[in-house]
């Protein structure tokens, strides 16, 4: 929980220099349009939906035949790939859709809308040959190379739902996602580079595929040129598939508005990640409108979002929301500090980036290296900055504002989630005055509420549960194969209202201050990880009896993972075992889930009914001697032992 202290910050108006926002140039105008969007949502969204092309117009804007499940733009048909590609060809065929920067400085590609369409059509034909049909799932396990966007759009074109698995996830995590989604085709690569180091992606895919007999076709992009094995009859080189007997144009399939566009697995409060399902019409309208308005997109903008496409931010603001607006997206393959902390600023200068969108953890890690890095670069092309993924502390906000925006660019602090499809709380640059550390005000059609345990509304300044009163077009429609979990997770605590899992407070100006997750989800460097997932990975290691994982504040990562581990009799807890356990978690989930610290424990604080008291563990892990009320604890003696263990 960072960034909540300085609420008394003066309201900033860095917008003087900001050219007129195309839609709402004043707070008054924002408020007026906001009120209308809430009072007459069907009218508002019916109008906004014209932002995308429909092959068959919708007959009903919004309906909830079975609450809390909702439908948007029913009766309508459209194709997301058509909207992101074909429709731009007459006016923007030669415009650059994607600028790709490889990890090596001289590896650059510029792909026009026309070229992108051609490559998407070629892959669509290959997917047809693999027997992929409308309604099927295709798994994409690729690094940040143009082929990841091409794969997504090819799936969308033929009506198959994609499920992208972040290339940093382990083979075990990949296998689980393939199995749960029921994908029958995998698109992957031979390997890729991370900080100059070769990652053998195909080997990991192979390991996963040994557990996934349903995958009968694999397309492999040649990226790193490392030596790999192609399994006969199953694996084929992407470039060969793209070159051979090409029939020409591949027709986009008209999809029902509520047809699934993609699944994206995300962490929740159990050990099993959930397949968040987004559908075509609502998601596309929402991601496109938020991109256009919040980033104030103009025809000449060069937009650089540093997120990986394996996360929702990349889905919505590198691929769908950006390309549907006909904008130019910069895609960077490598790490922000490779080979040095000036890398991102070099990219901004090189491609004259005008809008830059990143996570607070990236800002903190680069700020730590000093101002000399951005100072070396010409950053005057920038006109707007954004952040996402975690609360931003006012110090980092100011560093970003002064050293990157050079005091001239508004910062949009955008709050949203995998489940929301697009941004829900954010300033509209140039219209809404900024307060460092606050995500500010709700987007059109969004009604946030800060609620108390009993469901009543919290007072101004009082922290509570952040909930959203009514659905919006971008909301996830269900959890794949688990509608019950959808209802329980999001709509049960406050009946019918969407529970975000975040804490928040609202100030006297109606601005929202997000205080972080209040469930068992941790944000490590902006990446979402479930404590239960890490715990089940730890427990799956021989010798481990029980594990409890909690977040601890971390100066760069925001939050880090702290694990308490109880060993079975006969297992000795030493530093060697700590290394082995961390490696095991990496193998089970991925490097992002590795615990920062492991503490061996003789016992864990539990209630008399056997529930682990995480509140107590959090206090201990953070080095606090004050663990709060322990009157409900079964054996208060364990706390002393844990405190002593911590100090060791
Ligand atoms: C986009 C994304 C969602 C969680 C969410 C919050 C945290 C995201 C902000 C933020 C404070 C922000 N999707 N979060 N944006 N907290 N200010 N601007 O990150 O599904 O991976 O995570 O991220 O806790 O619930 S996500």
What this model shows, in words?
The chain is of the alpha/beta class and 648 residues long. Among the domains are: 322 residues, Rossmann fold; 127 residues, ANL, C-terminal domain (GMP Synthetase, Chain A, domain 3, 2-Layer Sandwich). It has 20 helices and 30 strands. The strands form 8 sheets. The protein has an 8-stranded mixed β-sheet with strand order 12-11-8-6-7-14-15-23, with helices on both faces. β24 and β25 form a beta hairpin. α13 packs across α15. It is globular. The two termini are 26 Å apart. The N terminus is likely disordered. The structure holds 5'-O-(acetylsulfamoyl)adenosine. 5'-O-(acetylsulfamoyl)adenosine (7RM) binds next to α11, β24 and β25. 5'-O-(acetylsulfamoyl)adenosine binds next to α11, β24 and β25.
What's the topology here?
Blueprint: H1 27-39, H2 41-48, E1 60-66, E2 69-74, E3 77-78, H3 80-84, H4 89-92, E4 96-101, E5 108-112, H5 113-129, E6 137-141, H6 146-158, E7 161-164, H7 171-181, E8 185-189, E9 192-194, E10 197-199, H8 201-209, E11 217-221, E12 235-237, H9 238-243, E13 255-256, E14 260-266, E15 274-279, H10 280-294, E16 302-305, H11 312-324, E17 328-332, H12 343-351, E18 355-358, H13 360-367, H14 372-375, E19 384-387, H15 394-404, E20 411-413, E21 448-451, E22 464-468, E23 478-479, H16 483-491, E24 498-506, E25 512-517, E26 521-524, E27 527-530, H17 531-539, E28 544-554, E29 558-567, H18 575-588, E30 597-600, H19 614-621, H20 637-647
Parallel strand pairs: 4-17, 6-7, 6-8, 7-14, 8-11, 11-12, 16-17, 16-18, 18-19, 19-20, 29-30
Antiparallel strand pairs: 1-2, 3-13, 4-5, 9-10, 14-15, 15-23, 21-22, 22-24, 24-25, 26-27, 28-29
Helix pairs in contact: 1-2, 5-6, 7-8, 10-11, 13-15
Bound molecules: 5'-O-(acetylsulfamoyl)adenosine (7RM).
